[in-house]
Amino acid sequence: MTNTGILGIGTYLPEKVLTNFDMEKIVDTTDEWIVSRSGIRNRHVVAEEQATSDISVIAAQRALENAGLEAKDIDMFIVATATPDMLFPSTACIVASKLGIVGPPAFDIAAGCTGFVYALTLANSFVRSGAYKKILVIGAESLTRILDWTDRSTCVLFGDGAGAVIVGETERNGIVYSVLGADGSGGHNLTLPAGGSALPATHETVDKRLHYVHMNGPEVFKFAVRAMAKSCKEVLDKAGMVASDISWFVPHQANIRIIESASQKLGIPMEKVLVTLDKTGNTSAATIPITIDMAIREGKIKKGDKLLAVAFGAGLTWGAVVLEW
Ligand code: UT7
């Protein structure tokens, strides 16, 4: 078995920012409601000409530079996203092509906001087995493209962004353990109902606004707190660690109240919890790499730190991973 770790990280947030005060002009909401119910203040929005593959490519180039590698060194491309450029081909194929690469396998992971943790786990297994050496793992979303901008209960919560890491062989074992799970019986609580084979696009599906995010917020909230605490406990047990061994907790950035409840259940003090959702909103599969990258830039995460990252999302899915940076 080969030791694996993260060789480089890069992120990208689109230039355009919408504040809660901008949201007040779009739907019947207030900065006070959004901050107190979610913790979010700003979200980034892709430019008209940007699709998920475009923001992925920028994050990927930054991760390659950070690792001192070139695109030709990558032997597998994985993109975790709920907002692919199109149903097919996969966004990963488009990203590899935009990076000028032909040949290595490329595919997307559909696990909603948990997608990055799923993709990282998969990449880790491929590298550990010796089958692949350097895998580009991207979590990227253009969620503002699938939001119903007349639905105040969802449109204020999400934003766009991309984060990329390169998983490869390392001297020490950087990706220690992970736990993944799914429960499709709760899937109806967070969906984009139309445009797939169940409900192909028709004038009626468009009129009924079924090509946008539909969410039962309170149900997802309850599930999230349970799933985060449970999967973190499981992965810590597997790693033979306890919560106090963790340097930084990197929770999926959906709602500050979810993060606080999960941290409390785990006994992790808020000083060790990384929070970026105030600046980005919920960027789904991109929140974890974006949060790690920001913390590195702020001088918080240092080499050798132990991170516990956890996510939950559409599926419903969940996943937790212990990493040594
Ligand atoms: O990555 C996974 C994706 N999703 C999530 O993690 C979301 C999880 N859920 C949540 O974060 C929370 O449930 C929300 C932030 C979505 C909602 O917070 P809540 O405390 O569960 O509020 P609620 O849905 O129970 O709504 C409370 C009230 C309602 O009014 P009434 O029926 O009590 O009169 C809503 O209509 O707040 C109203 N409301 C708003 N008011 C102002 C809903 N959205 C807004 C809004 N501005 N944007």
Describe this structure in words.
This protein has helices at 20-26, 31-38, 52-67, 91-98, 115-128, 152-155, 203-207, 217-239, 256-266, 277-280, 287-297, and strands spanning 4-12, 16-19, 42-45, 76-80, 106-109, 134-142, 160-169, 175-182, 190-191, 214-215, 248-251, 306-313, 317-324. The protein is an alpha/beta fold and 325 residues long. The protein has 2 domains: 4-171, Thiolase/Chalcone synthase (Peroxisomal Thiolase, Chain A, domain 1); 176-324, Peroxisomal Thiolase, Chain A, domain 1. The two termini are 19 Å apart. It has 11 helices and 13 strands. The structure holds oxa(dethia)-CoA (UT7).
Q: Note the overall shape.
A: globular
CATH superfamily of the largest domain: Thiolase/Chalcone synthase
Could you tell me the number of beta strands?
Answer: 13
Oligomer: single chain
Number of domains: 2
Looking at this protein, list some descriptive labels.
325 residues; alpha/beta; Peroxisomal Thiolase, Chain A, domain 1; 2 domains; 13 strands; binds oxa(dethia)-CoA
Task: Give a short overview.
The protein has 11 helices and 13 strands. The chain has about 325 residues and is an alpha/beta fold.
